Amino acid sequence: MRDRLRICLVASSLYPIGEPFAGGLEAMTHQLARELLRRGHEVSLFAAPGSDPALDVTELDVPRFVPSPAAEADVNAPPRRWMAEHHAYLGLMLDLARDASTRFDVVHNNSLHHLPVAMAHTVDVPLVTTLHTPPVPWLESAVALSPASSSFAAVSEHTSRAWAHLAPAVPILNGVDVDRWTPGPGGGPAVWSGRLVAEKAPHEAIDACRLAGIPLVLAGPVPDEAYFEREIAPRLGRQAVHVGHLDHKALTRLLGRASVALVTPAWDEPYGLVAAEAMACGTPVAAYDRGALREVVADEAGALAPGGDVEALAVAVTAALGRDRGAVRRHAVQHCSLRRMVDEYERLYRSLGRLRDAA
Description:
This is Glycosyltransferase. Its EC number is 2.4.-.-. Keywords: Glycosyltransferase, Transferase. GO terms for molecular function: glycosyltransferase activity. By secondary structure, the chain is α/β, with parallel strands linked by helices. It folds into 2 domains: about 5-175 and about 340-359, Rossmann fold (3-Layer(aba) Sandwich); about 190-335, 3-Layer(aba) Sandwich (Rossmann fold). It is about 40% helix and about 15% strand. The strands form 2 sheets. Strands 3-2-1-4-5-6-7 form a 7-stranded parallel sheet, with helices on both faces. A 6-stranded parallel sheet has the order 10-9-8-11-12-13, with helices on both faces. Strand 6, helix 6 and strand 7 (about 170) form a beta-alpha-beta unit. The longest helix has 24 residues, at about 80-105.
């Protein structure tokens, strides 16, 4: 495989790969594309409309497909959004089946859609899929039916184990750009960042900080208004404020000033990018010990508490406050960096090319 690779990155058709990011998957894909380009590779990104124009983006044109009235009249017709997403990925995979080898050396699928996996056998260059979530029905079905057609990576050891019943996945932990997430002085309120949704349980972060006697700032989008009004709004006040969905620069300033960051998943977190971002800013993390967070938050960089135990999380907040910010930052640079992540993906791309050439 050549030194300068031609890489096709397949991303979400629903959420743009651009700031402010909808979530960790979009942030990881954006950072991966930027770093591969910086290293001199040729990167083509297939992503949702509105993605970063600084990248070579081909829009996965979701809105254009509209089922006919006859098709929509079918009693089993799926929702329009499902059909539009299906149409976008079907069109992409048919295009790749026709001419991938003349355009790319490798296809790297970072979407959560099943079609890139199910149709991997039609593409005549290596295709690797990063598993960003635990098994979900449609994607699990695609992996089960064609496990040998695609290669797999996983965003953590935990996620790799979750998929081990179907296919081996090389663990490549996510990384953050430690040159952009810069250290700050700390000493300010606690911070919780991410999507304000039930499965991330920010309301429990508010309760834990109240018990620990430390004010909390929440930053992130509100995709679930009902949850926000039910669980978050009644808890807001002088000791807990929501500052909205921040761009990278503003969020870096906020995390750098924070005394501690909280991560409170109500599910088994596949990785926990917000923890890596906080630690890159030198801010220790108090988190629930769920999913992969044990792989991300080392003892010198924070403290863990049993999932769902708010009182134990308050104790973890107090413990994390005592961590040395320099040690927290060093841990992030050594173990959570974008450079390390992309080094590992480059090695994976090249190994797939050598295996294909030897076949």
